């Protein structure tokens, strides 16, 4: 079975400048994903797709394959992740003269995911024959029932009515959000339908809250750094 792992790492990050290669607890952010991807027992090929010479060099220094620079039209703010993934798949299939069975997108915005999480997602898509399996984590204090909108100067429920004085543990059904970590998909689901997730046969992998980080701004970066520091202290 041929399984391609891909990390998309464009150079135009705005929330955190140079986010993908910024130093996080002594290592470039992208190195955490590269290290765990290379330990996967399922991934047969792994590649970093970037439009940046600097990111390409850092990725290669960290041991990843980065054999091309992504075209500018697939690296803009408006370009979809699916289109960038499809470009990487086509490049690798042509280069290796093969067809992949599954594609695994590993986002480097979560440095806390590990090989167990990656392989659990892949194992689930193989066993369930799902179109996609994506990592999600449970919403705790941000349950949809607590989300409000303002009309005029009045507070109203946004989607789900909030029970009076309800504790967060009483809110139901349980709600989950995409974690920004791992997306596994059948090759045809991506290449023929242009989709990464969301079909009727999409399945979840529930990422533990302790590994649910998605770096999108400076505060997220500080939180991730603190968690990694805490883990290091626990093991030292």
Could you explain the architecture of this structure?
- It is a single chain.
- By secondary structure, the protein is α/β, with parallel strands linked by helices.
- 31% of the residues lie in helices and 22% in strands.
- The chain folds into two domains: 3-138 and 175-235, Spore Coat Polysaccharide Biosynthesis Protein SpsA, Chain A (Alpha-Beta Complex), CATH 3.90.550; 140-174, no CATH class.
- The protein has six helices and ten strands.
- The chain has a six-stranded mixed sheet, with helices on both faces. Strands 2-3 form a two-stranded antiparallel sheet.
- Strand 7 and strand 8 form a beta hairpin.
- The model has no long low-confidence stretch (mean pLDDT 93).
Keyphrases for this structure?
31% helix, alpha/beta, 6 helices, 10 strands, 236 residues, Spore Coat Polysaccharide Biosynthesis Protein SpsA, Chain A, single chain, 2 domains
How are the SSEs placed, and which strands pair?
Elements (H helix, E strand, L loop, with lengths): L2 E6 L14 E2 L2 E2 H10 L6 E5 L3 H9 L19 H16 L5 E5 L8 H14 L3 E7 L9 E4 L2 E4 L18 E11 H5 L10 E5 L11 H18 L1
Parallel strand pairs: 1-4, 1-5, 6-10
Antiparallel strand pairs: 2-3, 5-9, 6-9, 7-8
The fraction of residues in strands falls at 15-25%
- Written as H for each helix and E for each strand, in order along the chain, the element string is EEEHEHHEHEEEEHEH
The Cα radius of gyration reads: 19 Å
As a percent range, the share of helical residues equals 25-40%
Mean pLDDT value = 93
Query: How many individual domains?
Result: 2
| Fourth-level CATH superfamily of the largest domain | Spore Coat Polysaccharide Biosynthesis Protein SpsA, Chain A
- Tell me about the largest β-sheet: 6 strands, mixed
Straight-line distance between termini: 39 Å
The CATH class of the largest domain: Alpha Beta
Number of beta strands:
10
Shape summary: globular
Strand order across the largest sheet: 4-1-5-9-6-10
Low-confidence blocks of residues: none
State the secondary-structure class: alpha/beta
The CATH topology name of the largest domain reads Spore Coat Polysaccharide Biosynthesis Protein SpsA, Chain A
Assigned CATH architecture of the largest domain: Alpha-Beta Complex
């Amino acid at each position: 079975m041929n399984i391609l792992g891909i990390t998309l790492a464009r150079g135009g990050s705005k929330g955190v400048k140079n986010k993908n290669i910024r130093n996080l607890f002594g290592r470039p952010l992208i190195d955490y994903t590269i290290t765990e991807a290379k330990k996967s027992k399922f991934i047969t090929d792994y590649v970093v797709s970037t439009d940046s010479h600097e990111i390409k060099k850092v990725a290669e220094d960290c041991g990843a394959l980065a054999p091309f620079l992504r075209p500018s039209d697939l690296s803009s703010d408006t370009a979809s992740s699916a289109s960038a993934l499809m470009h990487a798949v086509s490049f690798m299939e042509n280069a290796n003269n093969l067809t992949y069975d599954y594609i695994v997108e590993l986002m480097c915005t979560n440095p806390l995911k590990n090989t167990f999480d990656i392989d659990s997602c892949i194992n689930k898509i193989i066993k369930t024959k799902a179109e996609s399996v994506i990592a999600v984590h449970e919403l705790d204090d941000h349950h949809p029932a607590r989300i409000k909108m303002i009309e005029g100067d009045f507070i109203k429920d946004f989607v789900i009515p909030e029970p009076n004085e309800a504790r967060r543990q009483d809110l139901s059904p349980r709600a989950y959000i995409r974690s920004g970590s791992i997306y596994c998909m059948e090759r045809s689901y991506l290449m023929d339908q242009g989709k990464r997730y969301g079909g009727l046969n999409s399945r979840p992998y529930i990422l533990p809250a302790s590994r649910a980080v998605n770096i999108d701004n400076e505060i997220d970066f500080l939180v991730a750094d603190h968690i990694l520091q805490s883990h290091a202290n626990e093991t030292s």
